[in-house]
Design brief:
The chain has about 80 residues and is mainly alpha-helical. It has one domain. About 75% of the residues lie in helices and about 0% in strands. Keywords: Membrane, Transmembrane, Transmembrane helix.
């Protein structure tokens, strides 16, 4: 019964998301709208659109290699030791 429910719930959520897609695509009233590309004339624009995303990506890569990956290796070594 639980397995059947676990299969139905994502299907229902997906159908609702597809059916209500036009609702999510609307722009709120009072929000400035421009169809122009981002101009990197000011320092604030450069920081917001270039520096911050690049730092997040670089920190994510460092986190993966220095924290997550060694942790997984240690867990694998513990599993191997416990099997023997």
């Amino acid at each position: 019964m639980i397995r059947r429910t676990c299969r139905i719930i994502p299907l229902v959520v997906g159908v609702i998301a597809i059916a209500c897609q036009h609702v999510y695509a609307q722009i709120p009233t009072g929000t400035p709208r421009t169809d122009e590309p981002v101009r990197l004339n000011t320092t604030a624009d450069i920081i917001i659109y270039l520096v911050l995303p690049l730092t997040v990506i670089i920190l994510g890569i460092f986190w993966w290699f220095f924290y997550k990956k060694p942790k997984n290796k240690k867990e694998e070594e513990k599993r191997k030791e416990s099997k023997t």
